Amino acid sequence: MKISNSILKALVLLFAVVLFIGFTSMPMHLIAASAVQLAVSDASGKAGDDVTVSITISPNSKLGAAGILLKYDASKLEYKEHTLGAASIGSLSVVNPDYRPKEGNFKTIFDAFVNAEGLDSGGSLLDITFKIKS
Predict the structure, then answer these.
(1) Helix, strand, or coil here: 83?
(2) CA separation (Å) from 16 to 2, 19, 20, 28?
(3) pTM given for the model
């Protein structure tokens, strides 16, 4: 029995060494995506006007998932609706326009975004329409 245990231990050690050498000698390839750049567009208008603000992303970002928070002054703007932008095609996006309780005059909109293959196209991820208050 001692001989077979010794042989088994030697085989396990040899197998571990072969695996270690195999994994450390494999070529590693990393694909670096472009730096992800998110931006919020400007909008202007007068009291009573509807304005749309877009959250945009740079092209070739390969972004696969993100949580995006947009805080706005609820004393000046009233949330009306949101639509997914062209860059979100093929993605899963869940938007909560009442994400956090009001903090002073500010409210927060949350967008949970997932794309299994990562984004190639740039442009609008989310378009949010507000009404400008008096």
Answers:
(1) strand
(2) 21, 5, 6, 20
(3) 0.72
